[in-house]
């Protein structure tokens, strides 16, 4: 009897220690994630706090509490640049670029995925190879082409080139390979659907998560684009938000308060996009992770 009680107590201790280990590991993991979330949010918090402080306070100390200089900083920023006109220009360029890049990039990806023609793999590798070269490398050639087509100082110089987006082609092509069976396309052809009807009515609804994911990244990339609009656009009324943010600092001295207000305003659309569309990013990135 005594030996059986002793073994039962040992088994209970082993079970308790096994239960305690996952709890402790979860607590450590949650603490680490909370600290990581705070560190990730801290730069945005400091940016918003500095938008309410004077230039002298920003330059001399680290601020964690809001100040009273928000409206004066805003007025100085608006006297230096027309930020709301920049918002209009950036929204027009970013939205148009995103829509065109999403549709034509998806159409190209569908062609690479479901049409087996001669040179398919070679062309796809060429598209992948283009992802290795930064846009700045072809800036001079891009400027010459834009000048030949009379696109200098025009928003179209920033919208039309966005159609050729290798990132969308690559990501959506892999998603189509995993999510769109060939049998669905063959059944639609037997039912008399045209190729464009199959693409628009059947394929696109099936791959919405991947399109939404890449559209979000395309919008943010276009919104934050600074160098190419700076080279192509000459008229102040066509400047985008990143250019106006850089101009808000002033010429002879840096107005930190006005700059932080401009930066905080420029971050608002990006935060809204992430807040409402983060589920599409997660859904798109995890697609195909679990095999049926």
From TrEMBL:
Location comes to: Cell membrane
GO annotations of cellular component type: plasma membrane
Q: What's the name of the protein?
A: Carbohydrate ABC transporter membrane protein 2, CUT1 family
Record keywords: Cell membrane, Membrane, Transmembrane, Transmembrane helix, Transport
Family to which the UniProt record says this protein belongs:
Belongs to the binding-protein-dependent transport system permease family.
- One Pfam family assigned to this protein is BPD_transp_1
One GO biological process term is: transmembrane transport
* PROSITE patterns noted in UniProt: ABC_TM1
Annotated membrane topology is: Multi-pass membrane protein
Where in the numbering of this chain does the ABC transmembrane type-1 domain appear? 87-277
Q: Where are the membrane-spanning stretches?
A: 23-46, 91-110, 122-143, 155-176, 197-220, 257-282
């Amino acid at each position: 009897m005594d030996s059986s009680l002793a073994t039962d107590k040992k088994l209970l201790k082993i079970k308790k220690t096994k239960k305690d280990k996952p709890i402790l590991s979860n607590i450590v993991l949650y603490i680490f994630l909370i600290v990581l979330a705070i560190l990730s949010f801290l730069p945005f918090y400091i940016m918003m706090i500095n938008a309410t402080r004077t230039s002298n306070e920003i330059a001399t100390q680290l601020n964690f509490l809001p100040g009273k200089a928000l409206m004066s900083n805003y007025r100085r920023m608006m006297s230096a640049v027309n930020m709301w006109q920049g918002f209009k220009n950036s929204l027009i360029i970013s939205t148009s670029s995103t829509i065109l890049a999403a549709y034509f990039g998806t159409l190209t990806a569908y062609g690479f995925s479901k049409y087996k023609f001669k040179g398919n793999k070679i062309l796809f590798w060429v598209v992948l190879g283009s992802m290795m070269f930064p846009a700045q490398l072809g800036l001079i050639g891009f400027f010459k082409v834009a000048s030949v087509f009379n696109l200098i100082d025009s928003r179209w110089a920033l919208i039309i080139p966005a159609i050729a987006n290798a990132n969308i082609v690559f990501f959506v092509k892999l998603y189509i390979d995993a999510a769109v069976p060939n049998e669905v396309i063959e059944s639609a052809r037997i039912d008399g659907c045209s190729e464009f009807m199959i693409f628009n009515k059947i394929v696109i609804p099936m791959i919405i998560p991947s399109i939404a994911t890449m559209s979000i990244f395309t919008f943010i990339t276009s919104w934050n684009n600074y160098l190419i609009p700076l080279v192509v656009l000459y008229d102040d009324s066509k400047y985008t938000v990143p250019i106006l943010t850089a101009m808000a600092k002033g010429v002879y001295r840096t107005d930190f308060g006005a700059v932080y207000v401009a930066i905080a305003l420029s971050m608002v659309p990006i935060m809204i996009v992430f807040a409402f569309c983060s589920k599409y990013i997660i859904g798109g990135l995890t697609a195909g992770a679990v095999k049926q």
